[in-house]
User: What shape does this take?
Amino acid sequence: MALLRYIAGRLVVYVLVIIFALTVLFFVPRLGPTDPVEAMLAKVASQGAYMDAAQVDALRQSLSDTFGLNGSLLEQYWAFIKRIVVTADFGPSLSMYPTPVMSLILNALPWTFGLLLTSTLIAWVLGNFVGLMSGWKPGSTTSRIMEGVAICLYPIPYYILALVLSILFSYVWKIFPLTTTIRGAPWSWDLVTSVVWNSFLPAMSIVIVVFGWWVISVKAQTTALKEEEFVRYARLKGLSDGRILSRYVLPNAILPQITFLALQIGLMFNGSLITEILFDYPGLGLLIYSAVLQGDFNLLMGTISLSVIAVATATMVIDLIYPLLDPRIRHR
Amino acid sequence: MAKFFADAPFRLYLGVVLVVIFIILGGILPWFAPGDPLVWYTAPRNQAPSATYWLGTTSLGQDVFWLLTYALRNSLILGLIVAGLSTVIGVFLGLAAGYAGGWLDRVLSFFMDALLCIPSLPILILMAALFGGQLALPFVGLALVLFNWPYPARQVRAVALTMREREFINVAWFSGESSVRILVRHIFPYIAGWSAANFINTVLVGISTESALAVIGLSSAQQATLGTMIYWAINYQALLGGKYVWIGSPVLAIVLLFIGLFLVSSGLSMRSSARRMSI
Assistant: This one.
């Protein structure tokens, strides 16, 4: 019953957050000092297209339509929310006309999710292992070195690390590809190796930073948990270190990590956007970037709305997983 | 000052030293620049580091060293303003939410939670794209404040909630102290250490997010920041030309500055939690 109430509460907050986020997205184009329609017309003109006054007016009208600038503010707002929530339709892409924006996004999403999930998972396993080890013996040399390394890695932004990795391994020592080119037939071994090979550097830039944080936090947790009565009891009972770490310390050290993940997922997403752009990785980040460069408003609004919704959803999913892992919330 | 460092962990010293170096580089040195380093062709092009041009020159004829000091100055100013405003707004709203309770608390808490799960960079990119392809620094700062006040606010709210129930607050209240005095004398010491740590961390996040926007060319091009310096270097093929000092210096500056800021922030929070334990 308590669990049901928890889930219902989270879902209500989730819906409100999505509405709030969409409201922000709705008002951003309207708060700017410049009129987006005029800005876009200026962009078209600056690209050398010559149009007479009637054509400009026609274009202005059609842009106002796609921007949803017709009717009163309330009507515009309602139409905007309805289009995204009810029909999930962002219209056709202007630069790759008439491909729907949604299908472009659906092609890009697996890349972004794949990159983020795989690298978070690798960093989680490595970080927990190293953090547990160094927290168990906090005074030892290896533990101090590992913490020093982690402290130097964690504050570095993902895109800076991505840049450093690409300078080191694509320019100076040319072993990894500079930009992403995927080869191979669908479902073939070639395709798999090509994906892994091309994703290696972008993934590493995320893995290394996230690894740094996990080592720092798990080490602090482990050092504190080591002094707890139940761990001392387990040790006096004669259990092996491995068993104490995996059964007594780890489950307690995992909970704060989940809260952290929920708070951090937005920042990780920010980082992966830039990393994708730097490596030409065909995910959501590159799609947003090409939308900006080509002035494709439909694609821009679609990708941005979807990334905001995706991050909010991921945060909610993590929040919902929490009670499954923490029996104390379930039984309250 | 001596008292400040008395029970400080080693990492705080190291962090303060690093940060002070960068404050000197970005806060004092720009005054001594021989000219505006942004202007093209004020130096010979493509020079390797030498006695006259410490970090060489760009392919646009700019002195990399002086350009770096300008970039550091602008990035630091942005970070400090963002962190200052976010901390003041966050502490104020956090106290209001925790202290007042009721519907005000619910509304404020909702906004804190909602803003925390909206990624800031996509919104900034949207703003940049709509405002003509580049976002002036004041707008970047404003947007960053909007996304960063919830962190201190949540923490301060949690502290304020527990504070309401504490005995010594009641004692102060019943002995006739004004609520302003209670806030300043009794509650503020509890949140000061944590807020300072969070302030430093927000400086880091502010500089980092602006640089992220700048690296893809969507931040202001009129001013040098650490991010725009990287963008220019990439854009003018510093990498293909093998001019690693040009692109390397802002990258190294970001890495060292951020490590310094992180050491200060985590050192401060270690110190304040150690003191809280001992009280």
